[in-house]
Specification:
Order of helices and strands: EHHEEEEHHHEHHHHHHHHEEHEHEHE
Radius of gyration: 38 Å
CATH topology of the largest domain: Rossmann fold
Strand content: 5-15%
Number of domains: 4
Shape: elongated
Structural class: alpha/beta
CATH architecture of the largest domain: 3-Layer(aba) Sandwich
CATH superfamily of the largest domain: P-loop containing nucleotide triphosphate hydrolases
CATH class of the largest domain: Alpha Beta
């Protein structure tokens, strides 16, 4: 117990808050590899180092020291050989090894949570430790979610791991979800893929028959021999004119697009973000406004560079179009003269028209066949996704059934604790949802903050007991005083008693921080036992009564 006490004679303005209860827990978490929170960053430059003494599995006593001034390094000392630490060849004369935070947390994961392949592919040690070290404000919202706004996939992965389910299924569900999203983006229109395939098959048959008839007509078309040379020149000229025309069309479209982009970028408002917040009656701070101005300056510079680039491209395109138009004019004159020579028979005109129609028909057929192939591939992928979803769903159901006995003690203990605290039944429910495992609680008095907090307490105790029984876990459970924020005195006292007896029975440490005015003294059956558990008492009489001899700004 870490207790914040109020000193008699302390000023009215003094408070138990801010003495260092939460900071003490944050420092434990920091020594276990956590990133520094904002109020711990206030310690940078003070030359402080914090040491955490640990007993590793097998009984090896070690210590981990970490400084806010050099947070990337963790200095380890103690019986490191017995603890099977890496990099023992780098041990100093003083018997210390300096590890990076990643190596430190990797080792912690191997000796606390991981088994086999877990160390390489499972959830990180830090993500699992957050379930057993709750002290941030957003840690007390949901039993299964130790961080606010946590991704659903991470919630699934961590709780599946802690409840000894096949957590690799979570990754498969995530991959399946990504595939379904890509398929949804590939589909277009209101018709399903099957209906679109049926429409295109009929269209391909119709276009194919039409192209076959035109090919037969072209094969039997005869041209007089005396017109062959001129005909070849006309055909060649026609192709060249078409190429030039197509190139000019493409360039003019590109030219219109560039000119439209220049007009649009000139017309865009530079203050649209600030106007948006003004319309919403949201007043931005000076720092935000300054950032917006800097972003606006950067944007204007980008727009100037962009406009310069576009103007250069516009000039180049116009020059190309002019050159092609000159070539077209020259070719058109020669083409007209050749056509006059062939006009007497009129055969070339008919043949050219037939060839044009045939080319268009073949192009249309090729495009329809390409769309059909794409849709058939999409349909097969869609069918495969459905088959894979049925397979994953079946394996998930089977995993839930086969591993029920592993989570049964946690479900039973959760319900037992909740009934002791509330006098009513409550359950943990683990089932398959649309996107994988779902973790839920069924609680009495839905909507009560105190009941939700007790559900978190019960789940953490049940989970810790189960991990201890398996020889896994941190060997301790930490709760900040927020765990009892909206809980009445009787339930608070009973919960502390449950945690105390659980810790003794299962051999772990339970660390709780509280303000003295929130301690339900009158509800304890044995106050002396509670007092003996107090390892640190802070007071508001003077700065020396706080954890670090000064008060830090703990607002984050």
């Amino acid at each position: 117990m870490v207790l914040a006490e109020r000193t008699q004679g302390a000023a009215v303005t003094e408070s138990r808050n801010g003495l260092g209860k939460t900071t003490a827990v944050a420092l434990i978490d920091f020594c276990l590899g956590a990133n520094m929170g904002e109020h711990l960053r206030q310690m940078v430059g003070r030359g402080w180092t914090f040491k955490l003494d640990l007993v590793a599995p097998g009984g090896a006593e070690i210590s981990a020291s970490r400084s806010p001034d050099s947070p990337r390094d963790v200095v380890l000392a103690g019986d490191l050989a017995r603890a099977r630490f890496p990099d023992l060849d780098q041990m100093s004369i003083a018997g210390e090894v300096v590890l990076g935070v990643r190596k430190w947390t990797s080792w912690l994961g191997r000796v606390t949570f991981y088994r086999g392949r877990d160390a390489e592919q499972g959830p990180s040690f830090r993500s699992l430790a957050k379930h057993l070290i709750r002290f941030r404000g957003d840690s007390f919202i949901d039993p299964f979610r130790p961080v606010a706004n946590q991704a659903a996939a991470d919630v699934q992965l961590e709780n599946a791991f802690l409840l000894d389910l096949d957590w690799s299924l979570v990754e498969e569900w995530g991959s399946l979800k990504d595939r379904k999203n890509r398929l949804a983006l590939a589909q277009s229109g209101d018709l399903d893929v099957g209906a679109q395939i049926a429409d295109l098959e009929a269209q391909c048959v119709r276009l194919g028959r039409r192209a076959e008839r035109m090919q037969q007509d072209a094969a039997h078309f005869e041209v007089l021999p005396e017109f062959r040379d001129v005909e070849n020149r006309v055909n060649s000229g026609s192709r060249k004119l078409k190429q030039l025309s197509n190139s000019n069309v493409a360039d003019r479209q590109l030219l219109q697009m560039y000119e439209r982009q220049i007009d649009e970028e000139r017309s865009n408002s530079e203050d649209w973000i600030a106007e948006l917040f003004d319309d919403a009656n949201v007043h931005l701070g000076e720092a935000v406004v300054r950032s917006l101005e800097e972003a606006s300056d950067f944007r204007r510079e980008v727009e100037r560079n962009r406009e310069s680039y576009l103007q250069t491209e516009i000039r180049r395109i116009r020059e190309r179009v002019l050159l092609r138009e000159a070539e077209q004019e020259q070719l058109a004159g020669q083409h007209a003269e050749d056509l006059r020579l062939l006009d007497s028979g009129g055969a070339l005109e008919d043949f050219a028209e037939l060839q044009k129609s045939l080319a268009e028909a073949l192009t249309e057929l090729a495009e329809a066949r390409a769309r059909l192939a794409t849709l058939r591939n999409l349909s097969e992928n869609e069918a495969q996704v459905k088959r894979d979803e049925l397979d994953i769903a079946s394996r998930t159901d089977l995993d839930l059934q086969e591993r029920f006995s592993r989570r049964e003690p946690i479900i039973a203990r959760f319900g037992e604790i909740m009934e002791m605290l509330l006098g009513e039944s409550a359950d943990i429910r683990v089932r398959r949802g649309r996107t994988g495992f779902m973790f839920e609680t069924r609680l009495p008095r839905t909507g009560s903050s105190g009941v939700n907090l007790m559900a978190i307490f019960a789940y953490d105790i049940a989970l810790t007991e189960n991990l201890q029984a398996e020889g896994r876990g941190l060997g301790f459970l930490v709760h900040d005083s927020l765990i009892f924020a909206d809980v009445d005195e009787r339930q608070t006292a009973m919960a502390i008693d449950i945690a105390s007896r659980s810790a003794v029975q299962y051999g772990y440490q339970y660390l709780l921080t509280m303000n003295s005015d929130k301690v339900p003294w009158s509800e304890f059956r044995n106050q002396d036992e509670f007092r003996r558990s107090m390892v640190l008492t802070l007071d508001d009489g003077s700065p020396s009564g706080s954890l670090l001899g000064l008060r830090l700004d703990t607002s984050e």
